[in-house]
Amino acid sequence: xxxxxxxxxxxxxxxxxxxxxxxxxxxxxxxxxxxxxxxxxxxxxxxxxxxxxxxxxxxxxxxxxxxxxxxxxxxxxxxxxxxxxxxxxxxxxxxxxxxxxxxxxxxxxxxxxxxxxxxxxxxxxxxxxxxxxxxxxxxxxxxxxxxxxxxxxxxxxxxxxxxxxxxxxxxxxxxxxxxxxxxxxxxxxxxxxxxxxxxxxxxxxxxxxxxxxxxxxxxxxxxxxxxxxxxxxxxxxxxxxxxxxxxxxxxxxxxx
Length: 256
What we know:
This protein is of the alpha/beta class. It has helices at residues 18-34, 54-57, 60-77, 151-161, 184-204, and strands spanning 6-11, 39-41, 80-88, 94-101, 107-112, 133-135, 138-142, 171-177, 206-212, 229-231, 237-240, 247-252.
């Protein structure tokens, strides 16, 4: 690989079915490979979509088969991926996770969301500690959606975990999310999320790559979704995807 690592940020259409979202994610990987990217980051719960019907889609066999297709696609295309998936744990636990797959199609990491909203906590189980994964030219971790408000807790934990890794490798925080600016209150909350992302970028010397859904299946008339962004290690927002539309962009991630 010559030059800085290039990662695609996917802002996909949302579907109500596992099959529809799997096809959308596979298409994102194809597009990333065609654009010469080393990897592709996808949204929170990219495999199921983020909607009220998610519990009905949490089937162990179907999810395992879908993940196998993702791994096979990564290996065939030679691209890494970070994809939002439900993960089934012991005792009936279900986690909202971000799955890290390398360019050989191997699972190399899985981050479980622990900063759940009140509604999410009614179905999902909070995750635990997290670290960093070596993934296609970058050192990566994931911070899921509203966890960007938890930087005071996450930054020391993630900073301490960096001591075991090469300081010269670009650091990347994947930010899979489902947020929208449908009214003034939500717009203020989204700005707080972005401010938290900029603070975390500066604290860790890391790029932040947001993959946000561009629509809501729960409230199809709402607007203000999408606008996924790329935040540089100095906290500047250097790229943004369109609002309320599916899109994909590739960002070159230089050293700090």
